[in-house]
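HUMAN:
Could you generate one sequence with tokenized structure?
ASSISTANT:
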Amino acid sequence: MNVDRRKVKRQHGRDVMEMTPDDFDAVLATEAQVHAQPWTRGQFQDSFSAGHSMWIMRKAGVMVGYAVTMAVVDEVHLLNISVPADSQGHGHGSALLSYMIEQAWQEDAKRVLLEVRPSNVAALALYARCGFKEIGRRRSYYATFNGREDAIVMARELS
């Protein structure tokens, strides 16, 4: 029997722990379900190997979200945050984002940055509720089935 010995932190009634390669199958299933252009196993492995911060959030033992961030000098860049389709609308994304922001603040980051598709209305609303503001655009940043889509660059100051 494989016992999970990761350090668990509680966040709004959910368990948060560091992601390991053992989590990749579940994460990849969610990626394929919720993203038109999902990350690959190689991208998660590269982030893991690079030492990026990677978290899994569970409620009652079920994965309800995950996030990947990269620290650069005094900023944290949110690379990926996702919630399985059947877990959306229950505050899991907000709880995970709050946890990630708290971790960035504890690491003395000055701000958190992210890119989001303009078509991702739910994510835009979540980020706005969590204090993120638009600071720019990256033209033709995301691949789509019909070409390219801009990215809205957002930031939240942590002072």
